[in-house]
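It is worth pausing here to work through a concrete case rather than discussing structure prediction in the abstract. The textbook approach is simple: state the sequence, then state the predicted structure, then interpret. We follow exactly that order.
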Amino acid sequence: MTWVNWGRTVECQPGRVLSPGGADDLAALVTECRSTGDRIKAVGAGHSFSPIAAAPSIQIELSRMRGLVRVEPELRQVTLRAGTHLHEIPGLLAPHGLAMANLGDVDRQTIAGATSTGTHGTGLAFGGISTQIVSATIISGTGEIVTVDTGSPDLPAVALGLGALGLLVDVTLQCVPAFSIRADERPLDIDDAIDGFLDRVAEHDHHEFYMFAHSNRALGKINTRLDGVVAPSGPSAIRRYIDDELLSNRAFGLLCELSARLPVTASTINEISGRVLSARTYTDSSTKVFISERNVRFREMEYALPLDAVPGALREIRSMIGRRKYRVSFPIEVRAAAADDLMLSTASGRNSGYIAVHRYINDDAADTAAYFADVEAIMTAHDGRPHWGKMHTRDAAYLRSAYPRFDEFLAVRDRLDPDRVFTNDYLDRVLGA
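Step two, the predicted structure:
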């Protein structure tokens, strides 16, 4: 059987695909594989664009390991089984009046996959999803059931472990009281979007913008957190369906397909995309504001930069696209996140800005690769750190220079997986064989 990820950038043919039911099943499997030399990789929803989840021999899928384990209401903490999808979590938390503190804009991933790859949202006072982990249970490479929590020096490694330290059984998240968000979305002039980025992320709870190549337009988003849950307000359900589904997915998908077949139309598509979305303000639950439907398939590269480097890097990308005459139909996404203390978090030790570039899945593969390579050269010149779940070409030598705690992580790996039961070609490249 051939496994293919969502973005169709990775495929593999595992020798066996297993669906364990819990920790004991996993522990027995790891013990077996340690003796036979087989390698194990867990896969969630397949939403990573990098080969981080590619299974060289045994693939673990987590569909039988989903749901809520327990709730500690006085601490506002919940324990979730590793295969629980992000889109399932709001329904599990709602009866307890809780929510996750921050999210990205896609909720198809499992909690294990999202945290293991460093999935993040935006907001300079908030870290990625992995920073919400206060405890985790894993099966180590020696077949032991290991629990690490805030009292363990290993938590900063395990909370964002790349699947290199063990198989996640469950994670305990620090939640917050359920809340609503007022969303303000509006077109911006591109110079205003770039020049005002640092001020906006400092002033507002959550800010991001989308920059349309071949255009002077951007779409800015400011989300303001409200105390408690308030009644939804703003555009009607029909208007939001038109904006979010018809314009942002169906029509955009048709335009991207047109651009793939006739690249010369990309500049016109960007101009249309930048102007068709008008300003709107609405209020809804945090999850419904954070999450957007993403039905048009694409390929993605994302880098985290020191926050102050973002405006300059964006200007370089704009100049490079024009100079190299790339035809890019997808907008460039720009976000920010707070510094954290996780060993391999892209925001480890520094406030970070994120620049994500995308290409439509049917765009010319060679042109996409060249575009990503040129963007990557700009990102690395600014001390960029690649998102672990997105496309990049960095190796252990580069990443050791980018992460002050890189060797600390490797020391934890040596203890928890001394025989490299959980490795694959990607981990050999980024962590060293």
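Step three, interpretation. The chain has a mean pLDDT of 93. The radius of gyration is 21 Å.
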